[in-house]
């Protein structure tokens, strides 16, 4: 594994100017500067994204693909321009492969309902992993109920890493789909997606990657990964809420029946037969979240401008510094210590319930997430009802880690 | 607001050493409460003889607010009849949710230390979980486990 090192001095000042792009961060909470350490739940938006959305509404809004008038043309160009930005960002072969959705959850549901539901037979198997977010579990359970397919779960080890040998053994001749997260939101583990996809490809098994936590932190190239589907959420990567993308290999998408019916997804309708629209519109029924897509396009431009390598190094470095600092706190245990990990730390503290820690940290201006992180099986695997999680974004600083460590110390004092 | 207003000494003490924290050998009435948001889970056990609560205990895991609330609840309930227990539930519930509610320390005793929880809307469920579970246990005269969820 390569562990990128920060050229600390110079980059620290560059990242300070990045922080200044985020107006929401300039505030005090309970009299302390806000340390927003909850970007894995939802990241904040830079001025550039906020402005792109506002400008669109101020100057260009109309429905897309429907009018010959100027505003409709502008809105269509901006919306399709955003699609091209997303294509470039994840290196898809064509914009036909970029379907706008409400987010990762809807993207995975699109795969389960349009792809899996129409192809799975009773007894067919779907392989997921023990570290999945509920949105990469429940849609598969639903499609299992609908088709009689069987859900298999690959185990993880005590460090929170996928057990590769077990995963490979679970790929059998009945396995039709393998679905897994790129980066775990509860543990920070980075899965070896290239290797997993290569293994699945050799056996003709379709692959579905939940990339919600990956896009904000590492460069993603869907063609190099060689997956069939890849899902992402705008709000985790500094874009708006309510917008996300399903990438699907064109060949797969062509074969799939539409998912939702309505306007936009058709070419011609009469009561005998409806002709579906071309990709990607076939899967985008109804007026889409135009402003959301434009905001997401602006977020992509923002990230490209900084450069994903620097962003990856920053997230890794913050995770490493936080791990070191927190490990020094007596009674604190890190949950998820994978070799290949980034951008967040999950932990528990003896005698301090995560929920109490969350409230006390908030009094220090520190926003962390506490609970099961929508990954109850992970909690069960580690025998915990909940953990505290500090997750990092491009605007976070070493000083905020100190603020977190001080808050943890105070929580121990209050409850000790 | 000072965090010590929320985590008062009584609360910290009851969290550190919860009272009546046990599962009785024979179970008369029981209910299970679950807060899916934070994973808090607890059982409340009651023995009711001649209309009076003769034993009350709890078992489970949760944050300091939920453990302290349950612990103080068991202390307060012992010896009460069912209607007194219901009245206490209603007072505590109002204290946790109504901003204008004047806490009467004579009536609520130690439980009045939970009044600040009202200022933390996300934490109200932590304090009230055991009380909702209590109500379910009171009504649960059969052998089945009654389930309460805060969602
Ligand atoms: C790993 C992972 N997958 C899926 C999701 C769901 O994303 P969304 O709620 O944006 O659909 C999240 C975020 O909550 C996540 O962290």
The count of helical stretches of chain A stands at 14
Helix content of chain A: 40-55%
Query: What string gives the helices and strands of chain B in order?
Result: HHEEEHHHHE
In terms of DSSP E residues, the strand content of chain A is 15-25%
Written account of the structure:
The complex is a heterodimer of chains A (about 425) and B (about 150). Chain A has about 425 residues and is of the alpha/beta class. Chain A folds into 2 domains: about 5-30 and about 310-415, Aspartate Aminotransferase, domain 1 (Alpha-Beta Complex); about 50-305, Aspartate Aminotransferase, domain 2. Mean pLDDT of chain A is about 95; it is low at about 1-5. Chain A has 14 helices and 17 strands. Chain B is α+β, with helices and mostly antiparallel strands and about 150 residues long. Chain B has a single domain (about 5-150), classed as Sufe protein. Chain: A, CATH 3.90.1010. Chain B has helices at about 5, 10-15, 65-75, 80-95, 105-110, 125-140, and strands at about 30-35, 40-50, 50-60, 145-150. In chain B, strand 2 (about 40-50) and strand 3 form a beta hairpin. The longest helix of chain B is centred in the middle third of the chain and has 16 residues, at about 80-95. Chain B is globular, with a radius of gyration of 14 Å. The mean pLDDT of chain B is about 90. Classes of the chains: A alpha/beta (about 425), B alpha+beta (about 150). The interface of A and B includes residues 351, 359 and 385 of A. Bound molecules: pyridoxal-5'-phosphate. Pyridoxal-5'-phosphate (PLP) binds near residues 105 and 374 of chain A. The site of pyridoxal-5'-phosphate has 13 residues of chain A, from helix 4.
